[in-house]
């Protein structure tokens, strides 16, 4: 059992996974980028919260002019939701790229 190829492959995979995790944990550039992106997302989500509150207030008022204003507010909400999806997609790609670049460099060096 000591020479089981499956156990050896698992050990190599675990070492590789730990090495990549150490890279991300110790890479301030990766964390700074993620932090910046999360702050952008939070800003958009905060704006959406305010928009939703305004839409609700306008709806409850039943004033025709306020109902008309809701059209533009809801359009902005829809655009903001797309923006959040795009930001999360970019974060995912950037994070994956950081891992991939490090893994490629590590594989060449190791």
Query: In percent terms, what proportion of residues is strand?
Result: under 5%
> Tally the helices: what do you get?
3
What's the mean pLDDT score? Answer: 80
Total count of strands: 0
Order of helices and strands: HHH
Label the overall shape: elongated
In whole angstroms, the N-to-C terminal distance is: 27 Å
The low-confidence runs, each spanning 5 or more residues with pLDDT under 50, are 12-18
Largest sheet: none
Question: Helix- and strand-based class?
Answer: mainly alpha
In which range does the helix fraction lie?
Answer: over 70%
What Rg is obtained from the alpha carbons, in whole angstroms? 23 Å
Family: Belongs to the EARLY FLOWERING 4 family.
GO cellular component, one term: nucleus
Protein name: Protein EARLY FLOWERING 4
Main location: nucleus
List keywords for this structure.
elongated, biological rhythms, EARLY_FLOWERING_4, 110 residues, mainly alpha, 0% strand
